[in-house]
Amino acid sequence: MKNIVAMALMLVLSIACTNAQTPKEFAKESLDYKMVSLEGQEITFKDVLKKYKGKTVVIDVWASWCPDCIKGMPKVVNLQNEFTDVVYLFISADKTPEAWKKGIEKYNVNGEHFLLTDGMKGAFGKSIKLDWIPRYMVVDKKGKIALFKAIEADDENLITTLKTLK
């Protein structure tokens, strides 16, 4: 009986710790981070999110040099076809604006586009605990993080999250 109680307590603590590590809001460092638009204008991530408030947003952090990102693009297209009322925000970790723009065109990436100015291991990447790309996140209509991390565009949690936000 003691073992069952101990196991149940460990399970509850484990779930609580996991939920505590999943932020529902972006850190100040994320929000204040300046990225670059396709037009070459600097814009803070906070202002990007404001632009889409009232809409569900899928964030795809990617790069044209990333084989897993490129392999995942057909899954992103499937997601876009299934969830047409969602904004798809592509944040690139490409090293140069030229490589980024060429990658968008080459891989026919449809959505809103922004470039990190310091790569995936820079300030923005650290602030969202970016350890792998592609990285998918979902932001709800109020601007809160509904899903903090998925690494596949067909991830069950990603799809379930989008279905619940319809």
UniProtKB/TrEMBL annotation:
Keywords: Cytochrome c-type biogenesis, Disulfide bond, Redox-active center, Signal. This is TlpA family protein disulfide reductase. Residues 1-20 form the signal peptide. Residues 24-166 form the Thioredoxin domain. PANTHER family: THIOL:DISULFIDE INTERCHANGE PROTEIN DSBE (PTHR42852). The lineage of its organism: Bacteria, Pseudomonadati, Bacteroidota, Flavobacteriia, Flavobacteriales. One of its GO terms (biological process) is cytochrome complex assembly. It comes from the Bacteria. GO terms for molecular function: oxidoreductase activity. One of its GO terms (cellular component) is cell envelope. InterPro entries: Redoxin (IPR013740), Thioredoxin-like_sf (IPR036249), Thioredoxin_domain (IPR013766), Thioredoxin_ResA/DsbE_sf (IPR050553). The keyword Disulfide bond applies. The keyword Transferase does not apply. It is found in: Cell envelope. It comes from Flavobacterium supellecticarium. Its main location: other.
